[in-house]
Amino acid sequence: MADRSLEIDAISKIYGKVTALRHMSFDVRAGELFGFVGSNGAGKTTAMRIVLGVLASDSGEVRWDGSPITAETRRTIGYMPEERGLYPKMKVGEQLTYLARLHGLPAAEARRAATVWTERLGIAARLDDEVQKLSLGNQQRVQLAAALVHDPKILVLDEPFSGLDPVAVDVMSQVLRAKAAEGVPVVFSSHQLDLVERLCDRVGIVQKGRMVTCGTVGELRGGGPERLLVDAPQAPDGWADDLPGVTVLGHDGGRTELALGEGADDQTVLKAALATGPVHEFARRRPSLTELFRNVVTADHEDAAQQAKGAAA
């Protein structure tokens, strides 16, 4: 395992009859942006709270730099909760300075850090404003500043892009990339899968408390059968149904998406398409992260349904 990595090793958490986490394992490496995605209730926030020590796992271990994580290590984590944790009537500058001092920074250094991060995040003019008087987007920027103000060695962010406008998304993305470039492991959850796909080095998809799949975006998108997009406007419905190894995934007008399995040949597909008339597009296509996520969740629901049916029988 690479040095300075955050390791989540087989952690489980059970609440009565509900299993929130099932032997979940993954790691976030130094200088890496790791996307942690899953449906609501999949276990993402529970896992993050265990990393922070807010919750204790029933089994498994969290390690930093190869050693079990301690209270002292947790002081070096920058955390942004999904439910924002700011004091609404406290002024922005005072609040950031206070939070930096809680993490051990001297007063002068804490004030300086608050100024630096509000400038960097575009809210320097709001230092003397109460948080409750800011727009939701600016409150979000303050919350990120709160996670960064003590110069954390690890960043754990729960839905940091929720509710942000495109300009704020760009600002936050730049900051996270910059922290990763400094060697900080950055893990964040998000339902904005197009953003995760664009920003992250690796992605883990979580479903029902377990890590279903994990890898680089390229690895995840490259898995499964090869896909072809064929635009043959004069092709009749069913023109590719009998091609060996070919599965028709969708048909919209003259555009047909195909999956090529074992024994399929793209040249045979092209020949069949040309036999129907002109072909305007013939291209390999990789599924988006959104499509992969949908397929994972759908497959998991189908497996659960089959298991329930088998148990009932």
From TrEMBL:
Pfam families: ABC_tran, DrrA1-3_C. It comes from the Bacteria. One of its GO terms (molecular function) is ATP binding. InterPro entries: AAA+_ATPase, ABC_transporter-like_ATP-bd, ABC_transporter-like_CS, DrrA1/2-like_C, P-loop_NTPase. Keywords: ATP-binding, Nucleotide-binding, Transport. Residues 6-233 form the ABC transporter domain. Belongs to the ABC transporter superfamily. This is ABC transporter ATP-binding protein. The lineage of its organism: Bacteria, Bacillati, Actinomycetota, Actinomycetes, Pseudonocardiales.
